[in-house]
């Protein structure tokens, strides 16, 4: 210990050493766990307690968390960005990388670490904390939140607010802010995103806004855009809401046969053209929805699904909004405005 350490500065403010002793005493701290870098100051703090006539707490010093380069993990240096991450995920990676537990285990949530922690299992060596592992921990805890109905409702509210903030001025159809739609997005994307904010990132904009596919672009591929579009509801309704990958492939192959004068290549070009934005968002469409709803929706469905007054929906579309594939159909409403007589 250094001689005559400063405990009260000339401006009347205490140094950390005096301040922490006073705070610990008045907060009634009886057991104190802190980083090993404070080990050299422990004798100083014990003497301060003795000088003030106070009973010191029992001290235990823990090994430090280090970056991959061996430097000390510190919030001052921005070593790890934990903004908007669940506290359980941060606690989980700390308990997983550190010591004090019988075994490493992912997915711990309070009060599990409290009941499982054993001070005698603390090791003397520092722990290496890899921030690149944090997304995986966060993905796991996000799925746990989704599985709980109460927590999921809270996530839905947060996602609605995030979508409004991110795409408010770009939303052509504000029904994407409905709670049912937001919940569907959460259920579909769990296991694929690490944070709720990822669902409103530019890579996921196709879930909230329409792709920029003009009527002229579609017409350049085939003059029978409307004819092809009218067959899409039939594909969907014929599945009874239980569309599978095999069913989809079979129906897509038969589609040109039912469209007299329409080449198979043109029908598929239209599907790929309108589905381009979805593929950029999700390279593997089947992983997104679990089945092939997205692929069906990417056939040009717009003109056949909307009729009558602006804002009115056909019965088939209204029923479809509660089905797996409803969100896919919404993507193609970008061509409505270019269709004469359609809203």
Structure description:
The protein is mostly helical. It has four domains: 16-62, no CATH class; 66-133, Glutamyl-tRNA Synthetase, domain 2 (Orthogonal Bundle), CATH 1.10.1160; 148-207, no CATH class; 215-279 and 289-304, no CATH class. The chain is 46% helix and 4% strand. The protein contains 17 helices and four strands. It has helices spanning 16-26, 42-51, 87-97, 112-116, 134-147, 149-167, 179-189, 215-221, 225-230, 232-238, 245-258, 264-281, 285-289, 293-297, 302-305, 315-320, 326-330, and strands spanning 31-35, 58-62, 65-66, 127-128. The strands form two sheets. Strands 1-2 form a two-stranded parallel sheet. The longest helix has 19 residues, at 149-167. It is elongated, with a radius of gyration of 30 Å. The model is unreliable at 283-343 (pLDDT under 50). Residues 4-81 form the Glutamyl/glutaminyl-tRNA synthetase class Ib catalytic domain. Belongs to the class-I aminoacyl-tRNA synthetase family. Glutamate--tRNA ligase type 1 subfamily. GO terms for molecular function: ATP binding; glutamate-tRNA ligase activity; tRNA binding. This is Glutamyl/glutaminyl-tRNA synthetase class Ib catalytic domain-containing protein. Keywords: Aminoacyl-tRNA synthetase, ATP-binding, Ligase, Nucleotide-binding, Protein biosynthesis.
In short:
This protein has helices at residues 16-26, 42-51, 87-97, 112-116, 134-147, 149-167, 179-189, 215-221, 225-230, 232-238, 245-258, 264-281, 285-289, 293-297, 302-305, 315-320, 326-330; strands at residues 31-35, 58-62, 65-66, 127-128.
